[in-house]
Specification:
The structure is a single chain. This protein starts with 24 loop residues before the first helix and ends in a 30-residue tail after the last helix. Helices cover 31% and strands 11% of the residues. Helix 1 crosses helix 5 and helix 3 packs parallel to helix 4. It is α/β, with parallel strands linked by helices.
């Protein structure tokens, strides 16, 4: 991805991946094409573009999927990942990010940063002079949206999103929804954001976005009408757990899950993990997928993600005790609230 143009056919060299906003449409398409190629080559890479390199993972927020995926990816491409929790380095004692960046920039070859402020990632990239990846900030989550777009292409075909309507139901003004909005602007697909009024982006952001193919509505049914893909997220993003009382003001706390119970859906419902307690969707509707033209449940997104992942030779996964061999999730439908 970053500086891989020496090994793969990319239109240009990317020094950093800081946000979807800063990418062009061609750069996003290049990254998706590269993602397909690297996934297909997993376990038998002809080239190791990170061979001999050390990459730091600097995390201010807890992580399972992001940390593991970065460590495994760096290792399999020939590099050495170094995990640095902010609680274990001088950043945790108040050292300015630019000072940390100057020091690490002389010792390591690249960094992935998972933190709160977008400015922290951009300062690190500027002062370190090394390739820097945004592994999540409060402003954007670019790697997640690129992975979602790649999944859409795997299901529907390369470039299939260009003629789609994609719906995002939940908090319409968080890092996930903002990255989706910038992706819609750069790639041209229709995006519907369905959220309560207080959870829609402010007018200043909408003017900055300036994108006619991004639609805002407070009606979740209207948001998903005619959509090929529904994407959703937790109401409270990581680091906002103390704001749990705000859930009391949300009409229909179960978010997209409540919409799912209105009628059989004809499109996948990707679900973002981790799910924390009972916040967001009910456990019963968390892993739901309705097959085209029917009300039957099929494999949940988590199962499909595991099934689609190409593992290196010799790596196997035992069947989950709650899943049949076909990876179908068998459960009793969730009862309506109340």
């Amino acid at each position: 991805m970053v500086r891989l143009s020496r090994f793969y056919s990319l239109s240009k060299t990317m020094n950093n991946l800081l946000s979807i906003e800063q990418l062009t449409g061609d750069e996003i398409r290049d990254l998706l094409a590269l993602g397909h190629r690297l996934k297909a080559e997993r376990g038998h890479h002809e080239r190791l573009p990170l061979k001999g390199q050390t990459w730091a993972l600097i995390f201010s927020k807890s992580s399972t999927r992001t940390r593991v995926s970065f460590e495994v990816g760096i290792s399999e491409l020939g590099g050495r990942p170094m995990f640095l929790s902010v609680h274990d380095i001088q950043l945790g004692r108040g050292e300015p990010i630019k000072d940390t960046a100057r020091v690490l920039g002389r010792m390591i070859h690249g960094a992935a940063i998972r933190t709160y402020g977008q400015q922290e990632v951009e300062e690190f990239a500027s002062f370190s002079g090394i390739p820097t990846i945004n592994a999540l900030t409060d402003e954007e989550h670019p790697c997640q949206i690129l992975a979602d777009l790649l999944t859409i292409e795997e299901i529907y075909g390369p470039g299939s999103w260009k003629d789609m309507k994609i719906a995002f139901v939940g908090d319409g003004d968080n890092n996930m929804s903002r990255s989706w909005m910038w992706a819609a602007k750069r790639l041209g697909f229709t995006l519907a954001i369905g959220a309560p009024t207080n959870y829609l982006p402010l007018e200043d952001f909408r003017r900055h976005l300036d994108c006619e193919n991004v639609i805002f509505t407070t009606d979740p049914v209207e948001a998903v009408k005619g959509a090929s893909v529904i994407n959703t997220d937790v109401w409270l993003s990581m680091g906002q757990e103390s704001q749990g009382k705000t859930l009391l003001s949300l009409p229909g706390e179960q978010g997209a899950a409540g919409t799912c119970r209105l009628r059989p859906l004809r499109f996948p419902l990707p679900a973002r993990l981790p799910r924390q307690g009972n916040h967001g969707r009910r456990a019963g509707t968390f892993c739901s997928r309705y097959l085209p033209g029917s009300g039957k449940q099929g494999a949940c997104p988590e199962s499909r993600a595991r099934h689609a992942c190409r593992r290196p030779p010799g790596i196997t996964r035992p069947a989950h005790p709650t899943q049949s061999p076909s990876h179908e999730l068998r459960r009793t439908p969730a009862r309506p609230a109340g």
